Amino acid sequence: MSIEVGSVVEGKVTGIKSFGAFVELAEGKTGLVHISQVSHTFINDINDVLNVGDVVQVKVLNVEDSGKISLSIKETQPKPEGSDRPRRGGNGGGRSNNAKGGNKGGARKAGGPATTIAHSDVSTEPFNTMADQLKEWAKKAGMA
Question: What is the largest CA-CA distance in the chain?
Fold first, then answer.
């Protein structure tokens, strides 16, 4: 039996590392199930879910020319209810582009009031201080 991308086959877990599990398939070939492909839910420690010797159903995701085989256990299981909703934060759950993970680009932090000022409300006349400009905006907004 050849190992084809998209096929679901049975294999035996032969090794476990922090990043995933090695699974022996037919013909003595071995593939890797990355930890992100073990379950639809987050797994902190793969040893909590898999053990050497476990027999598992896996889907073949990719077979490289070099012989590396990428496998998935979660692709053989139905998605849990509600798993199609978008992740919080709207950026797919990844880290922000800011190396420190902070608020980049001056974007407003969540939870604060949003204030929109129409372009026509901004005075084009020079002003002496920012305080003067804020007073003018507050007056136009009916806050002063």
Answer: 81
How far apart, in whole angstroms, are the C-alpha atoms of residue 60 and residue 32?
10
pLDDT digits (tens, 9 = 90+) for 29-40: 999 999 999 999
Residue with structure tokens 């969540």? 110
Q: What's the pLDDT score for residue 81?
A: 79
Cα gap 27→122, rounded to integer Å: 73
First to last CA, the chain: 80
Cα(13)–Cα(31) distance, integer angstroms: 10
Strand partners, 8: 59
- Angstrom distances, CA of residue 55 to CA of 87, 112, 133: 32, 51, 71
